[in-house]
């Protein structure tokens, strides 16, 4: 029921592999400053992004699977007297493993537990690389330019027709050299989300969730940069329809919680996503 309810998800127990495509349009709402104060964008500023992703997941044992995500982004900005511009390209590729330590329904009263371990490749264009190519607006930025190790755990409890899932994750970027020759390291990132879903019709699942993300300060040459930590919070809703035994259609909407104190040094966005998933068995 929850395998494809939100995002890439996981394999169904009888599937050998799954592939999918997602595309999303994000409209900028405003931005939190480094004091967690939120300000909406004015008439002279606009920020939009179109993000797409091809992904695949393959079973390598009864409990383990491997995944790959290939993102692509197109960005548009309008900034006052600086004018407007667009740019984009390949984002940071992600690959990893997922292991079902406790499968759904394996124990009556105990939640399912899934562990993930992955790596993010610096295949996108980072901010300093965009600036080196005279991209003053930063529209060609599609990644962070750094390798990162990601780990997570998901706890899920199902009682048909309901499910509840808690996701916890951490990302640890590795140091890298900037275009100017300095050593830069993004701070560790923590993520958490709570999802509640229900099968409202046969093979139609509706879900709602809340999410929170926090990242510590950036280090340059080993020194923390003041006011460079980041935070973001949001809520969303999703619907998945498995209209065929192999095919699932997905639709979702996500909004940052655009209020003072609910973000830090980060843009806020309203994002709508559609996707299509194929599972082979």
List the helices and strands and how they pair.
Layout: E1 17-32, E2 38-40, E3 45-59, E4 64-79, E5 84-90, E6 94-102, E7 112-120, H1 127-132, E8 148-159, E9 162-173, E10 176-177, E11 183-185, E12 189-201, E13 204-215, E14 219-220, E15 223-224, E16 230-241, E17 247-256, E18 266-280
Antiparallel strand pairs: 1-2, 1-3, 1-18, 3-4, 4-5, 4-6, 6-7, 7-8, 8-9, 9-12, 10-11, 11-14, 12-13, 13-16, 14-15, 16-17, 17-18
Could you describe the 3D structure shown?
This protein is mostly beta strands. It has a single domain, classed as monomeric porin ompg (Porin, Beta Barrel). It contains 1 helix and 18 strands. The strands form 2 sheets. The chain has a 12-stranded antiparallel β-barrel with strand order 1-3-4-6-7-8-9-12-13-16-17-18. A 4-stranded antiparallel β-sheet has the order 10-11-14-15, with no helix packed on it. β1 and β2 form a beta hairpin. The model has no long low-confidence stretch (mean pLDDT 95).
């Amino acid at each position: 029921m929850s395998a494809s309810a939100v995002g890439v998800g996981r394999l169904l127990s009888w599937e050998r592999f799954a592939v999918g495509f997602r595309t999303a349009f994000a409209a900028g709402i405003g931005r939190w400053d480094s004091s967690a104060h939120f300000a909406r964008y004015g008439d002279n500023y606009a920020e939009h992004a179109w993000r797409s992703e091809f992904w695949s997941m393959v079973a390598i044992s009864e409990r383990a699977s491997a995944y790959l995500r290939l993102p692509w982004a197109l960005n548009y900005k309008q900034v006052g007297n600086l004018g407007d511009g667009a740019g984009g390209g390949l984002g940071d590729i992600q690959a990893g493993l997922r292991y079902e330590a406790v499968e759904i329904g394996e124990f009556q009263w105990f939640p399912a537990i899934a562990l993930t371990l992955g790596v993010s490749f610096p295949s996108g264009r980072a901010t300093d690389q965009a600036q080196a190519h005279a991209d003053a607006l930063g529209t060609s930025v599609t990644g962070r330019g750094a390798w990162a190790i990601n780990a997570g755990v998901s706890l899920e409890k199902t009682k048909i027709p309901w499910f509840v899932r808690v996701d916890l994750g951490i990302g640890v970027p590795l140091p890298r050299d900037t275009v100017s020759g300095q050593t830069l390291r993004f701070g560790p990132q923590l993520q958490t989300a709570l999802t509640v879903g229900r099968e409202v019709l046969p093979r139609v699942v509706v879900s709602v969730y809340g999410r929170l993300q926090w990242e510590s300060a950036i280090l340059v040459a080993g020194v923390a940069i003041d006011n460079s930590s980041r935070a973001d919070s949001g809520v969303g809703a999703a619907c998945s329809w498995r209209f065929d035994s192999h095919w699932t259609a997905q639709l979702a909407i996500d909004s940052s919680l655009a209020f003072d104190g609910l973000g830090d040094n980060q843009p806020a966005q309203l994002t709508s996503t559609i996707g299509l998933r194929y599972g082979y068995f």
